[in-house]
Amino acid sequence: MTLEIAGVTVRFGGVTPLDDVSVTFEDGVGGIIGPNGAGKTTLFNVLSGFALPVAGTVTLGGMSLLALAPHRRAGWGLRRTFQQEQVIRSLTVWDNVRLGADHTGASIDEVQAALDYVGLVDRDRPGTHLTMLERRLVELARCVIGEPRLVLLDEPAAGLDPEESGRLLGLIRDIPERFGALVLLVDHDMDLVRAACGTVAVLDFGKLIAFGETAEVLASPAVRQAYLGAQA
Ligand SMILES: Nc1ncnc2c1ncn2[C@@H]1O[C@H](COP(=O)(O)OP(=O)(O)O)[C@@H](O)[C@H]1O
Ligand SMILES: [Mg+2]
Predict the structure, then answer these.
(1) Does domain 3-228 bear CATH number 3.30.1950.10?
(2) Helix (H) and strand (E) counts for the chain?
(3) Which residues contact 143 (CB under 8 A, 6 or more apart)?
(4) What is the DSSP letter of 222?
């Protein structure tokens, strides 16, 4: 399924966090990178309906995503995580994932399948007792219940060590085939992006400055200069 973002512009007062962004992602896992403030989260907000673009279109498999009311997008198959993880401390692992079923029409079997997929065995542990990795896994589990079509992961590896990121990588790479969804990954962990994403888009000050095959994009001098602050 192809996600086509065309001419998307977002304005907040005098700020233009997204400026005429056009990019197309095919099946699999696509990456979005760029410095802080580049507009990555704003793009996710457009896709999930938290931000309304002043111009542009977004289609997935030919259907207009922006024409779908934001509150209907979860039922349609949109899933996302937030930079600040949203695990509820007073609820168990099971209830944290099951909560997502209310918006997505997922079955109890799908909740269990999602926990099996991320490998969280003790479903009765409360959110307060979870490590950062386990919280990220709870969120990932929530993203795959109820026939997801588009999964948006906003810095899922933030706060994880390399070994933990490696575990996340294996899971993220499995999503397209196992659950049938297109995945977009925003992260600053370049090892994760390089290993997970077939293609990557680079945003800088709200503009798309590069897009293409991941290894090629990450090696490009313009991207290295904008993103890594490296001497080109
Ligand atoms: N609700 C908002 N109101 C005003 N400015 C915003 C809002 N959300 C984001 N911005 C601004 O838009 C720009 C892009 O932010 P963001 O999309 O969060 O970047 P990133 O996720 O790439 O770090 C920043 O300059 C930020 O301050
Ligand atoms: Mg962000």
Answers:
(1) no
(2) 9, 10
(3) 79, 80, 81, 100, 151, 153, 175
(4) H
Over its C-alpha atoms, the chain yields an Rg (Å, rounded) of: 17
pLDDT under 50: residue ranges of the chain: 231-232
Tokens representing 208?
């798309």
Q: SS3 breakdown of the chain: % helix, strand, coil, rounded to 5?
A: 40, 25, 35
From the CA of 8, how far away is ligand 1's center (Å)? Answer: 15
Cα of 186 vs centre of ligand 2, distance in Å, is: 8
Token duo for residue 82:
């937030």
Closest residue to atom 24 of ligand 1, CA basis: 37
Give pTM, 2 decimals.
0.95
Atom of ligand 1 nearest to the CA of 13: 4
Domains of the chain by residue range: 3-228
Cα 121–Cα 126–Cα 132 angle in degrees, nearest 5? 75
What is the distance in A from the centroid of ligand 2 to the CA of 109?
33
